[in-house]
Write a structure and sequence with these properties.
Layout lengths: L6 H83 L3 H32 L1
Length: 125
């Protein structure tokens, strides 16, 4: 039993076989590309969600930092106001002692004068 195949039939069979391989390869590549597109889409969505999460987190941290900064600024303003009001509201110990010494010296001088007046009155009368 022998099979005879003409040259053109062999060429047709080879072309059909290569056409089948080309179609199968193209179908396989299309499926691979579709799966890669799906994976990239999922990865992109995941990246966007992570980006949103980190943007929200950084915004929260930035808001907290801003509030703390405002708190420190308010505290600094209050302290500067306190420093400005301090000389108006309080007297230093040394200044108080000096003022008291002056008053006591004046009282001593007044007492001395009154004593002299009393001595003169006792001598005269």
């Amino acid at each position: 039993m022998s099979i005879q195949v003409e040259f053109w039939e062999l060429v047709k069979l080879l072309l059909a076989f290569f056409g089948f391989l080309f179609a199968a390869g193209k179908l396989l590549l299309m499926q691979i590309e579709r799966r890669l597109d799906e994976r990239f889409t999922v990865l992109e969505e995941s990246r966007e969600q992570a980006g949103k999460h980190w943007d929200e987190r950084f915004a929260a941290i930035e808001g907290q930092r801003r509030r703390e900064s405002e708190g420190w600024s308010a505290l600094e303003r209050e302290f500067l106001k306190f420093q400005a009001d301090l000389p108006l509201q309080y007297v230093r110990r040394e200044d108080y002692v000096r003022g008291q010494s002056v008053i006591e010296a004046k009282l001593d001088a007044l007492y001395s004068k009154l004593e002299l007046v009393q001595i003169k009155r006792n001598h005269n009368g």
